[in-house]
Write a structure and sequence with these properties.
single chain, 727 residues, alpha/beta, N-terminal domain of TfIIb, Dimethylsulfoxide Reductase, domain 2, Barwin-like endoglucanases, seven-stranded mixed β-sheet, 31% helix, globular, binds ligand MGD, binds iron/sulfur cluster, binds molybdenum atom
């Protein structure tokens, strides 16, 4: 039998690498980087190679499961939907729409079917109780984009191919492969930057893999970025270096910013953030004088007490130094399809509002239509008429990924009904009454709806399925439409094709002008593919799937180009430098200024062979040294009597866990690093490989109620802990 070659975009992380798979007799022989891919040009990481393991994993679910008398039984798809129809509408009838909660996880952003069709289910359910991994991650970024530019998805990314000076805070793209920034092979790009005389500076409490290839690394006290960044902005003003350049014509609020940062001189913030004043002033000076420069911050600055403020200050640094929306600075990609921030009238809009409703128990305001995931457990276990009684999880594992999972676990056991759309029986889905599995990524078509909007270079790529899906296994968009039909009361037997056709017709009517020609051009298509074809044709490049498909490596749509002021959607079409909510929040930073440093604080870490909580079951990734270790500086280890390789108890309040110590001079003294996504030693899951080396769940130490109040994002970094040696 001859081998066949297939090209497939990797759906596992935001780098979205183009892969080349060799297939023989229906099996994957090899996975490598696709050299001709216009975005990733041959780059691949070990997780991409592990797509073969994922496809073949015997623990990956191929059929629905229904729990009867506490035991999961294999079920057919019609049986599973019948069971859901028997149980879900009943909860809605008896207790109302908000009695159903929905949680969406990270893979939703990576799957066109989930991303485009989950809104249909949410609309049919009509619940306010929607949660997602965004509030464990990047919602401060969305909020700041909304407040400053008028749209949640107007996310600036460094123009890395042309920059001469790049400051990275709270991100480790060499390991994570980038986030809110699609940038495969960051290592190669950093090397090129330095080869053309540029500089890379990393600010992080750990000397990370990214810091190792940088020109400069500075330890920062965890959670204190807001002070460092305020000092930087202050230094720009104080040295007279503020120049907003071309975009200045649209900026409002410069005087308010100047006044607001007045108290935060580099001298006064230095001790709080552990970076000396001379360094802050020098970095500000370099940023201002570099012809092309960018500041980028990610999860380390989002998952802390001042996540929104820090994100705002990062954007201010880019704008005030004249590098915003300019080549080599931070810029806005132009996606070929689905660019939500390009809808409406160019140059003005309605902006964003938050707090249109609030959570029942803690009155946490909605942001981007979401309630903080940290509120989920209390919404389930706090008595009251309006509590959550049924839950639908979509590609998420909050028992491991969100703070205090054991409380959530107990809550899930007490639900009237729980449905999980997931490909494993894991720490979360084991609590479900019904599990509906998605397909293997190799059985699905693919287009990056979200990440083309944050790519280092404009591009459009499309992947065909490598293998045909099993005939009776519906794609997840089908499943979501059927669930929507059940939620609306149309029943599990509803005609999915007819529903999809009707909604597509509505969609075309809303598009207006091109409706007739788009209807004709999409004849014979359905589901996400039809939406994609329509979106590409009506998009800024007027493309079609066929046009993209003809190029094996995808279409290169060129380097990033200025988008201001056309991209603005604030009322009046201004860049709001000083949104009121952020100015007010500075008071909180002022109040916390004097807070003494804790002796030991905890931060997180990512590993290249890991992906949040769910890839520890793949043999090629699971092999090698144990990765769920606590990194401790040797000085701290000596002080606390900890031995390299020995065990330590990490305690916070009444909760504790025991982890293996690994001493490392890469740690900032006083800071311990433990990765998240581990703790696979629970009963009832089916992860045979992961269970062999379960690790511990760092989130068990964190508090569900500790959040950045503006965005609702969980605080996952910089919390005080105690560390003691175990015999
Ligand atoms: N302490 C700490 N906690 C963190 C973080 C941290 O840095 N520190 N990071 C946070 C971040 S950034 C994120 S994004 C969250 C992630 O948290 P989650 O979104 O909850 O979880 P993941 O661990 O990515 O798990 C993805 C789930 O989707 C399932 N899945 C995979 N593919 C598919 C598919 O095609 N279809 C379906 N239906 N299911 C699928 C997997 O089996 C798994 O259950 O974790 C957060 N938690
Ligand atoms: N291999 C791998 N890749 C992944 C993932 C994975 O689990 N494994 N997860 C994916 C997901 S969901 C996401 S969101 C992205 C995240 O992508 P990144 O944001 O690049 O994530 P991390 O590697 O966790 O980097 C965060 C950095 O912040 C530092 N940090 C912690 N606290 C602070 C602080 O207070 N201040 C500063 N300045 N730094 C701090 C940490 O030491 C760490 O180096 O990665 C994605 N890619
Ligand atoms: S970096 Fe790895 S996991 Fe991420 S898209 Fe590329 S191959 Fe996939
Ligand atoms: Mo994430």
């Amino acid at each position: 039998m001859t081998d066949t070659i297939h090209h497939r975009i990797c759906p596992l992380c935001e780098a979205c690498c183009g892969l080349e798979l060799t297939v023989r007799d229906g099996r994957v022989l090899s996975v490598r980087g696709h050299d001709a891919d216009v975005l990733s040009t041959g780059y691949i990481c070990p997780k991409g190679v592990a797509l073969r393991d994922l496809h073949e994993d015997p623990d990956r679910l191929r059929t629905p499961l229904i729990k009867r008398n506490g035991v999961f039984e294999t079920a057919s798809w019609p049986e599973a939907f019948a069971e859901i129809e028997r149980r879900l509408p009943e909860v809605i009838r008896a207790h109302g729409r908000d009695a159903v909660g929905v949680v969406a996880g990270n893979p939703v952003a990576h799957k066109i079917g989930l991303l485009l069709y989950l809104p249909r289910l949410l609309k049919a359910l009509g619940t306010h109780n929607f949660f997602s991994a965004a509030t464990l991650d990047q919602i401060p970024r969305h909020l700041v984009s909304g407040l400053m530019y008028g749209q949640w998805m107007t996310v600036p990314v460094p123009d890395v191919a042309r920059t001469d000076w790049l400051l990275v805070l709270g991100a480790n793209p060499i390991v994570s492969n980038g986030s809110m920034w699609t940038v495969p092979d960051f290592r190669g790009k950093a090397k090129a930057l330095r080869a053309r005389g540029g500089r890379l500076i990393v600010v992080d409490p750990r000397r990370t893999e990214t810091a190792a290839v940088a020109d400069e690394h500075h330890f920062i006290r965890p959670g204190a970025d807001v002070y460092f960044l305020l000092g930087m902005v202050h230094a720009l003003f104080a040295s007279g270096a503020v120049r907003t350049g071309r975009v200045g014509a649209w900026c409002d609020g410069l005087a308010e910013v100047r006044a607001a940062v007045q108290p935060f001189t580099p001298q006064r913030v230095a001790e709080r953030c552990s970076i000396d004043a001379a360094t802050i002033e020098r970095l500000a000076g370099e940023l201002a004088s570099a012809p092309r420069a960018a500041v980028y911050g990610r999860i380390g600055v989002c998952t802390q007490d001042f996540g929104s403020l820090s994100t705002w200050l990062i954007d201010l640094l880019n704008i005030l130094s004249g590098h915003f929306d300019e080549a080599g600075g931070t810029m806005f990609p132009r996606a070929a399809a689905f660019a939500v921030n390009a809808q409406g009238t160019p140059g003005s809009g309605r902006g964003v509002v938050t707090g249109r409703f609030a959570s029942r128990v803690s009155a946490a305001p909605e942001v981007m239509g979401e309630i903080p995931l940290g509120c989920l457990a209390e919404e389930i276990d706090t008595p009251g008429d309006a509590k959550i009684r049924a839950l639908i999880t979509v590609a998420t594992n909050p028992v491991l990924s969100s703070p205090h999972g054991s409380r959530l676990s107990r809550g899930l056991e007490g639900l009237d009904f729980m449905l999980s759309l997931d490909i494993y029986v894991n720490e979360t889905s084991r609590h479900a009454d019904v599990i509906l599995p998605g397909l293997s990524p190799l059985e699905e078509m693919h287009y990056d709806v979200a990440f083309t909007q944050m790519s280092w270079r404009n591009q459009a790529r499309y992947s065909e399925p490598v293998f045909e899906r099993p005939a009776d296994h519906p794609p997840e968009w089908h499943t979501l439409l059927r669930l929507a039909a059940i939620a609306r009361g149309d029943g599990a037997q509803a005609d999915i094709q007819a529903l999809d056709d009707a909604e597509f017709a509505d969609h075309l009517r809303r598009l207006g002008a091109d409706a007739a020609s788009l209807q004709a051009a999409t004849q014979g298509l359905s589901g996400p593919e039809r939406l994609l074809e329509a979106a590409l044709r009506s998009g800024p490049y007027g493309l079609s799937i066929d046009q993209i498909r003809r190029q094996a490596g995808g279409l290169d749509l060129g380097e990033l180009a200025p988008r201001m002021p056309e991209l603005l959607r604030t009322p009046g079409g201004r860049i709001e430098l000083a949104p009121t909510a952020l100015l007010h929040d500075l008071r909180r930073a002022t109040a916390a200024w004097a807070q003494p440093a804790s002796t030991m604080v905890l931060i997180g870490r990512r590993d290249v062979r890991s992906n949040n909580s769910w890839m520890h079951n793949l043999p090629t990734l699971a092999k090698g040294p144990m990765r769920c270790t606590a990194l401790v500086h040797p000085l701290d280890a000596a002080r606390l009597g900890l031995a390299d390789g020995g065990m330590a108890r990490i305690r916070r309040g009444s909760r504790w866990l025991d982890a293996q110590v690994q001493t490392s001079t890469d740690m900032m003294p006083g800071v311990v690093s433990l990765p998240h996504g581990w703790g696979h030693d629970v009963t009832g899951s089916r992860l045979s490989v992961a269970a062999q080396r379960p690790g511990v769940n760092v989130n068990e130490l964190l508090e569900e109620a500790r959040r950045d109040p503006l965005s609702g994002n969980a605080v996952l970094s910089g919390v005080a802990i105690e560390l003691t040696a175990l015999a």
